Amino acid sequence: MRPMVHYARRFCFFIILCLVAACLVAQVHAAGSSVERTGAFSAPEASSDLKKAIEDRGYRVALDDGWRAEFWFASPLATAIKESAGALYPELTNGEFVGVVSFPKGSSDYRGQAIPAGAYTLRYQYLPQDANHMGVSPNPDFLLAVPLAADPDPAAVLPFKKLVSLSAKTTGTAHPAVIAMAPSGTSGVAAKDDQGMTVFTVEIPAASGMTEKLGIVLKGQATQ
Description:
Blueprint: H1 2-30, E1 33-38, H2 48-53, E2 58-63, E3 68-73, E4 97-103, E5 107-108, E6 114-115, E7 118-126, E8 141-147, H3 160-171, E9 177-182, E10 189-192, E11 198-205, E12 211-219
């Protein structure tokens, strides 16, 4: 009798695990997003140096409202130890190359500015903590999108003013195309955070031999 009771308990535990897994899958599906790996970046306007600087495989992210993007990240991602008050990602250096993004249908940045369909480099920038920028975002970490033709050398570390000027070519305005960063979640998943932002989390091999987990805001805008 005891072996049968033990088997029944194990069977019930297995059923519970299956139900929990099914609920988790249902929640992910309900979020209306999907993330899958894709092939190499092949945009003809990309420099050979750029293609060599990124991973052979990318990430295709799709949301339920039709929004689409593909990302390829630096291989490896440069990291360094430094002090940046309040930064989510103090291991990243201002102006450094982080990756490439392609928007087949276009997108909008954290300020609500239109980003035309096309491919762009992504460079990290810690938002200056001055009177012009205080309160713009709960986090000071951003990725600035630059047209591929304007940024052929991923090894270059762009100073702030030059990066802003190049990124402004994306929006066609006086302002750069700013893509907010947020605390990372589950790697390889795009999901809403507690601020209502849709965040894509990715884990990237770093030059240190470790990995760096980044949270990139796909949908969500500044309140002011």
